[in-house]
């Protein structure tokens, strides 16, 4: 059974100071495990082990690798981090994302400094959640890669150029049409990027339409992505 839902962050803590206070309270008064509901720990040893030992691999997009399938407990951990402000989960989720980056790049992982480019969040969603979960995961993944000896940094290069319709219920072709031309690269974000390998990162890949649109926007700006990586995927590339 999925764990009981944790309350969303109230408006009073949706600030940098509030996030720090929430993190301190989480240490002093830990919630139940976000993955399975085990008491008094935000991430129990069993769920931590499941996340850490998942084997990254290609998704329906061969150039996009995911650290794990979008099933529990990974699904619950992502939802807790994204929607319920479980910010301490960014570390272990970012480590999983870092492993997916290395899997996607293979032997190219150390060929050049890495630039992790998070999928952009809609501003209204960032305000509602009190944080940008994908940007936070990208930063955690970059730190994990640096600990592994790789030169990696994260930079929010992309933004929405126009509104898009709700993707719920759309098939893959409809999602591609809905997203085409929706993203662009921030003009001021291109400085100091020469020689870095751009890698798109996200928390979840479903049809791959969002990653494909982001890759198009980067390519049009002269920054072609070498690969993409996510924490989880709803579907993986068929074997063989």
Radius of gyration: 17 Å
State the order of secondary-structure elements, H for helix, E for strand: HHEEHHEHHEEHEEHE
Quaternary organization: single chain
Question: How would you describe the shape?
Answer: globular
What is this structure, in a nutshell?
With 240 residues, the protein is of the alpha/beta class. Helices cover 38% and strands 16% of the residues. It has 8 helices and 8 strands; from the N terminus they run H-H-E-E-H-H-E-H-H-E-E-H-E-E-H-E.
What secondary-structure arrangement, pairings included, does this model have?
Layout: H1 16-28, H2 45-53, E1 57-58, E2 64-69, H3 74-83, H4 90-105, E3 114-118, H5 123-129, H6 133-147, E4 152-154, E5 158-160, H7 172-179, E6 183-185, E7 197-205, H8 209-220, E8 227-233
Parallel strand pairs: 2-8, 3-4, 3-7, 7-8
Antiparallel strand pairs: 1-2, 5-6
What does this structure look like?
- With 240 residues, the protein is α/β, with parallel strands linked by helices.
- The chain has eight helices and eight strands.
- A six-stranded mixed sheet has the order 1-2-8-7-3-4, sandwiched between helices.
- The two termini are 33 Å apart.
